[in-house]
Amino acid sequence: MRIWRIDVAFWVALLVLGVGLMVVAFLYRDNLVRLVSFLITAHILWMLALLVSNLSSLENLPNWRLLAWMGIPKAIAKQVEAFREATLGTVTKRKDRRRAKRIMKSLDVVVSRSEKKLRHPNWRIRKGAVEILGLVGELKTEIISLLVGMLKDPVAGVRTSARLALADIGPKAVGALRRACSEGAPELSEEVDICLKLMKNMAKNKLRAKNWQERLRAVRALGQMITPAQKDDISDLGFALNDNHKEVRLAVVEALIFIGPSDTIPFLKQALVDREESIQDKAMEGLGQIRQRLLVELENKDGNIRADAVKGLGLIGNEKDIEQLISRLLDKYTLVRTESVKGVGLIGGGKVIDVLVNALNDNEENVRRQTVEVLSEIGELAVEPLGEKLISGTNLERRLAAETLAMIGIAQAAESLRKAKKKEVNWEVRQTIISALKKFGSASPPLVVEEDTELSLLESIQAIA
Fold this sequence. Notes:
Largest sheet: none
Order of helices and strands: HHHHHHHHHHHHHHHHHHHHHHHHH
Helix content: over 70%
Number of helices: 25
Number of strands: 0
Strand content: under 5%
Shape: elongated
């Protein structure tokens, strides 16, 4: 610890007092006065020894509050920790409330003295003041604006300390940082971006901290910083649903709800089977809130927002939304129709096969391919409708139906392909059917088909026509 971080004059005065008391102890003849002088002097020398040894044994010091008042960072951190312990929970004992009040009173003195040092011409003094304020910033929100202002300090070392202090404060600092950018402070934008990235990395590292309160603060910080587009960060946050403390898991659910659709939905559905009923209820409530938000976004003019809403509704899987998703199969935006196919398949399954089969005629390749994939996942229930489409559909629909049946890969699908092959006159469709039949291979020996390389004259003429 550097000597400029504390009040040098105070320690010098304390040393002079100790020496003076020693002189009194030697000169004064009253044994009681001598004893008291010796005890006070020993106590002062003990405190000075701790200072010199970088306060390595501060944890065992009984009068750490006095040292915190003197401006020693390690003692301040211990005092802040004691304040958290005294105010933990919604209901506290009178003894704890009195203790918290005493701690806050001494911290007010620390804050007042450090705030004055922020304007000191010596950058080292400013840096030390920033570090001390960073320790108390989580408890006193007015400090956060002071630290944000120090991001404009001309000395890089002071700005770095301010970034670290704000990052350590966590969730409460996020709003202040964003307001600083939005209120017309362009010189802060780069510093704020660096600070937010640092804050996010620190929070992600603390997700595995031993102390559950640190993990809780990290989850709340990430909930305010992560955006719906940051899938990797959402996954890191979702991993914390495996935490062994229920308060942390509940905070994860609340954070996921705040972030919103649609990549948070799988994690919220995971929370539905949590061992704590309160977390299950919160996840259910959150999914309901997100669903209502998505239904509104279905009418948004932005196609990407509509597509994200459709995707989210499909993941939630509420059967009441099936008609909404089917109607979006006619949306003019390709991505919306693609996500609608996925959603209809996830919610409706075998009940909406006819709707999906009709989507094989979509004018966009991506939509058609997604439809083929969804129908192949439905499996046996889709074989009969696809067999009918293989006979009565357009050339494109018949080819896609043949590919889908090949992907389903069961005997009924092979039988539908074999029947359609006998009647097919279009050369391209016929070759697709033959290729599909070949994929069955040894699993269906009777259905292995020789490649039909020659068509009758009549079939060739019809295919050309």
